[in-house]
């Protein structure tokens, strides 16, 4: 990703935040978004996860939603997650759970959010499942980490979070959470952040990403490495070979609808690969972040749009 791609990403994240653009997108873009969304219902998503399982691909299931306005919405999402966990168990598919803290009320009341997440994590533990608290933009970084630490201290070890390599603070966060043996997903980062808190140059982000990956692998902590970047994937493969790290000590993660053939290939090579599978009707924020990641994603959607007009 060069200077042009960096400009593209920042520009797209800016314009997709404009209400008129959002209205037009949600009105006309639903069919196009389906490339990245596994359906609107839990059953549709579980069908997709079942199909992935036949290819040796694991999953993490996300009921889309974020930035709620009332705590009653958080309570409703919590109930959906309890059903989601039961659905995974009933279908016997290999899937973890992912949720966003603002979906559970973090922007409204941190204590209520923690209570909602605690209930989901406890329910997941009953079914021997794991919950990943997704990391959102920087206003919520510390609060998200605090919730995970609190739940771990309460004995709920089946919960982890995400660290974003483009933030200046991430290396220290990684060291701190390593000591507490928190299971982490490591990513570059997908939100628009200022130069006060985040690296703006691609080379700096990649260097940070590699540093936190090495830190976790070298310490023997199971690590989820989320990337579609061939250079990063090849680098990880070479690094674990050099260090004689077993394939079961980490996993690659990719997104539903992106590089599905590569996901299947990694599974055939014996690597653990997990697909992030989102579903639901609140797809717009997720969809726009996927488009912003690289121009190729937008080109793919525009190509599909042209095909629909024929």
From TrEMBL:
Keywords: FAD, Flavoprotein, Nucleotide-binding, Oxidoreductase, Proline metabolism
Proline dehydrogenase domain: residues covered: 45-297
Record InterPro entries: FAD-linked_oxidoreductase-like (IPR029041), PRODH_bac_arc (IPR008219), Proline_DH_dom (IPR002872), Proline_oxidase (IPR015659)
Binding site for FAD: 135, 164, 188-190, 227-228
Pathway: Amino-acid degradation; L-proline degradation into L-glutamate; L-glutamate from L-proline: step 1/2
Cofactor(s) listed: FAD
Positions that bind substrate: 100, 289-290
GO biological process: L-proline catabolic process to L-glutamate
A Pfam family the protein falls into: Pro_dh
Cofactor note (record): Binds 1 FAD per subunit.
Superkingdom: Bacteria
Catalytic reaction equation(s): L-proline + a quinone = (S)-1-pyrroline-5-carboxylate + a quinol + H(+)
GO MF: nucleotide binding; proline dehydrogenase activity
EC number(s) from the headed UniProt entry: 1.5.5.2
Cross-referenced PANTHER family: PROLINE DEHYDROGENASE 1, MITOCHONDRIAL (PTHR13914:SF0), PROLINE OXIDASE (PTHR13914)
Name recorded for this polypeptide: proline dehydrogenase
